[in-house]
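thread from #wetlab-drylab

HS: before we spend reagent money on co-crystallization trials with S-adenosylmethionine, can we at least see a predicted complex? here's what I'd submit
DV: go for it
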Amino acid sequence: MTDTWDPQQYGKFAAERSQPFWDLVRLVEDRRLRRAVDLGCGTGELTAAAAERLAVGVMVGIDSSPAMLAAAADHASTDVRFELGDIAAWSGDGDHDLVLANASLQWVPDHVGVLTRWWAALAPGGQLAVQVPANAEHPSHRIAAEVAAEEPFRAAMGGTPPPDPVARNVLDPAQYAIVLDRLGAARQHVRLQVYGHTLASSAAVVEWVRGTSLTRFADVLPDELWEPFIDEYRRRLLATIGDAAPYFYPFKRILFAGVKPA
Ligand SMILES: C[S@@+](CC[C@H](N)C(=O)[O-])C[C@H]1O[C@@H](n2cnc3c(N)ncnc32)[C@H](O)[C@@H]1O
């Protein structure tokens, strides 16, 4: 599969995207963190900033995108390093004080299995902190799936466009609470939060999703159909949400954290 993550496109809404990250970091209990991992670390800027804020001894950022890791290299230091890896398969030897994953778990299926492996990587007293988007029913996501299901795009994607990972993979908040309880969390915090983003215009939503959820179509569409796909998506989206400036973009996210018994 080609690497369709583009650090520049993703970085266009860096301020809006960093809010939930720091809310997630605030869920981490204040204690010594010798070893931590940031799964799906992306461009690594937030990984390094969190390592500093939380005074992490050794922080490893893991991502499957060579383009994102190339950008992350700028944020490596003696305490922070970045590695290529698949977060769906990742686990550890029970020696991590923190497993952090911001806006990455939604890309992989079987959250119960994945979270069980991540939990196994925690040392006694270790903490898991995860944030996933939960916005699948917003027109920005729904319309992308609708356009992908129509010609000529559908046939160009072999008749089966990739499904929305958030709709397919993300669980209900209460289910994450149940998973944490079954894993034996001594304490837990789970919440659904609506982030209200005031964007310059409704067309800016296209730029937002183009850097994230639409990358799944860029992976499989022929190059010559990528911009026509975006144009049709934009036309349909603006017909639905209106051509407004500014545009208020409500974005639902689930944040959850759990502590392993000491
Ligand atoms: C929306 S970005 C979030 C990046 C970063 N955590 C942040 O908060 O800015 C999602 C990241 O997850 C990575 N990713 C998606 N699926 C992955 C997988 N199976 N294994 C490793 N990384 C993955 C992508 O390459 C991308 O960098």
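DV: The longest strand covers residues 187-199.
HS: ok that's useful, forwarding to the group
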